[in-house]
Amino acid sequence: MRSGITNRWLRGSLFLTVLLVLLVESMFVYNFGRSYYNSVQQTMMRRFSSINGQLKMYTGDTAQKTAANRSVALRRMVEQFADKDKYEFMLLDGYGGVIASSSGTGADGIVVQDDFNKAQDAPDGVGVAIYRTASGETVMAVCSLVPYAAAMRLVTSLTLVQAQLKSVFIVSLIVVAAILGFTVASGLYFVRGIVVPLGQVERIAASIARGELDVRLPVTGDERDEVDRLRGTINQMAEGLEE
Q1: Cβ(9)–Cβ(187) under 8 Å?
Q2: Please, are residues 156 and 87 in contact by the beta-carbon 8 Å criterion?
Q3: Backbone phi, then psi, for 143, in 5-degree steps?
Q4: Could you count the other beta carbons within 10 Å of the beta carbon of residue 49?
Q5: What DSSP line would sit under 189-216, residue for residue?
Q6: pLDDT by residue for the chain (243 residues), tens digit each?
Q7: Residue 7: helix, strand or coil by DSSP?
Q8: Which residues fall within 8 angstroms of residue 173, CB to CB, at 6 or more apart?
Q9: In 135, 146, 196, 199, which residue has its Cα 20 to 30 A from 167's Cα atom?
Q10: Which residue in 96, 57, 98, 100 sits closest to 77, CA to CA?
């Protein structure tokens, strides 16, 4: 049967420690995952900035001619996109339909309209969506409105990111388990260091109460040990009663 001290330690100190560790673990996993996703998004945004910078090199005699030249150049960039193994690059119309894509297909099954709809409502004209494709793969889509077409969209797989996050999550769980294991072990050692001597004092005190005045508790003489001083006091009481 657990002692009152052990129960109070379990309900108080250990319970709060577990809550604190789990809270820190949750915050760490959330912030770590968010930083990874933000990194992927920023990389895609830099791609858009680079493309917009390249489009500024295309000009014409009039504003309409400049827009037409840049529209043609943008479509050519989509069709000749180099990093097809990392991204799906698309050019969208005003309804979010695919005008051109780096894979040469309509990208059916891998896109949704969420990122396009968010870009329409966003002040900066950028929308981001994370979702699962028809094949079950998790992807991130970033859409940016452009004046030379309706919008540009980049889609990339998050499989490697999720694998990395899973590895970090497993490692963090091991660390949390180690911390909690050490906390429990050290706490039990400390609690037993109090409970066992107090149980011994209780038994001797009960013996004295029954009239067994010759019983004594072992003492070490350590003045810094409160339990040892208590043993000495019980022994003095027993000696006084015996006299």
Answers
A1: yes
A2: yes
A3: -120, 135
A4: 11
A5: HHHHHHHHHHHHHHHHHHHHHTT-TT--
A6: 455 666 776 666 778 888 888 899 899 989 988 999 999 999 999 998 988 888 888 888 887 888 888 888 888 888 888 888 889 898 888 888 888 888 877 666 677 888 999 999 999 889 999 988 888 889 999 999 887 667 899 999 999 888 999 999 999 999 999 988 888 887 777 777 777 777 777 788 888 778 777 777 777 766 677 777 787 788 788 788 777
A7: helix
A8: 25
A9: 135
A10: 100
CA-to-CA separations, 152 to 62, 85, 126, 241, in angstroms, rounded: 24, 18, 10, 95
DSSP assignment of 143-164 equals EEE-TTSSEEEEEEE-HHHHHH
Assigned token pair, 153? 């969209």
- pTM (2 decimals)? 0.69
Token duo for residue 151: 């919008």
